[in-house]
């Protein structure tokens, strides 16, 4: 394995170049609808890239089709605007061929969860070292408002005028169930929180999946207001912080405790429960990660944001590189003739 790969995998700075966010701004005009949450995500990405101390030419952004898929044009790095649903497949090939690169996938809930779903789950299963950012606006926006795999049950859309009768995917649970080693959720209205999540994802060795709630002002405006708007978020969202109890509420007067395996809301002001009774987050506990992810559509508990799971195990590209090195060590003669003959051959005269 090269020194460059080792440094990237161990998250060591490999350059003394000082970047600023403007170094990652493309000269092209950013063309999303006014008020789209993607603007916020783009700005935070440009900020965290500048701080990673990785040469700009070592980044690659891969996308499929959708509003989010314009992203590679707007960052001053290498990138590929791929085809519908195939961003993860393209990125996986790139990461295996060039494990020294920091490879990012920018995708939407339709691009990623529908036609691209199979690529997603297998890249997660293999622990390919990608940073997958899924912009979730719970609708197909580019094609003018059709139902997507994350659209809420009974919600009317252009393709379901009488209401959506399909149960939505829970992206965090799907990623966890597929074996992703880093799973997190953030949203477009909190730049500071988003930066912290994206930086952790950037430094993760293995498959990192970040779901980002992204408001679509045209076709699904306000879909996440209850959980992200300043007026309501403290009562309906809980922030996950490793080693800290799950506390929420406008006055931090509520918390989450486990009743068996069921998260329940308790009051911290009635004298019955204290902070010591609350669930303490452990981002290395995969069982707890599933419990927290499954709070997503439970109306009786707040919606969780933060890092559900962050664990380490060898990445797919590391194992590929090691396997190639081991094979070369066992077979020092790599001539074409030797390779064609293989281990067992015979000659017919």
Number of strands: 11
* Oligomer class: single chain
CATH architectural grouping of the domain at 3-223 and 314-324: 3-Layer(aba) Sandwich
Number of helices: 13
Q: Tell me about the biggest sheet?
A: 8 strands, mixed
- CATH fold annotation of the domain at 3-223 and 314-324: Rossmann fold
CATH superfamily descriptor of the domain at 3-223 and 314-324: Thiamin diphosphate (ThDP)-binding fold, Pyr/PP domains
One letter per element, helices H and strands E, the order comes to HHEHEHEHHEHEHEHHEEEEHEHH
Low-pLDDT residue intervals, each spanning 5 or more residues = none
What does this structure look like?
The chain is globular and about 90 Å long. The mean pLDDT is 93. β5 (182-187), α8 (191-202) and β6 form a beta-alpha-beta unit. The strands form two sheets. It has an eight-stranded mixed sheet with strand order 2-1-3-4-6-5-11-7, with helices on both faces. The protein has a domain at 3-223 and 314-324: 3-Layer(aba) Sandwich (Rossmann fold). With 349 residues, the protein is of the alpha/beta class. Helices cover 31% and strands 17% of the residues. It has helices at 3-9, 38-51, 71-74, 87-97, 109-115, 117-126, 171-177, 191-202, 225-228, 233-236, 286-293, 316-330, 336-341, and strands spanning 59-63, 78-81, 102-108, 130-136, 182-187, 208-213, 237-240, 247-248, 254-259, 262-267, 303-310. α2 (38-51) packs across α8 (191-202), α5 (109-115) packs across α6 and α7 (171-177) packs antiparallel against α11. The longest helix has 15 residues, at 316-330. It has 13 helices and eleven strands.
